[in-house]
Amino acid sequence: MRSLTTLCLLLFAGTLLAQLPNTNVFLFDLQRKDDKLALAKPRLLTDFNRNGYNNQPFFFSDNEIYLTVQFPSDTSQTDIYALNLQTGVKT
Q1: For labelling alongside 34, which of 47, 69, 79, 86 has CA 20 to 30 A away?
Q2: For the chain, how many structural domains are there in total?
Q3: pLDDT at 25 over 60
Q4: Is there a domain that residue 33 lies in?
Q5: What would the pLDDT profile of 3-21 be if each residue is shown by its tens digit?
Q6: Going by C-beta distance under 8 Å and a sequence separation of 6 or more, which residues neighbour residue 71?
Q7: In sequence order, which residues have a C-beta less than 8 Å from that of residue 83 and are 6 or more positions away?
């Protein structure tokens, strides 16, 4: 019985570790002050999915960023979203 309990705990532990974490993507202005760099004007780009998985941002152009998104209500797949940084529109 003890071996069966240990086996079940090990099987379910792998499932818990496989869950994607809650992450968000921010955009900052990079400013140089003297010889140091500073981050300014933080913008939360993933406010539409604050409690979900948002990762792997890629700047396609100066105004468009691609990232992977998984909503908490749909854990079966991740989607790729394009965000327009000027208008805030996501597609």
Answers
A1: 86
A2: 1
A3: yes
A4: yes
A5: 777 766 677 666 555 667 8
A6: 49, 52
A7: 45, 64, 65, 66, 67, 89, 90
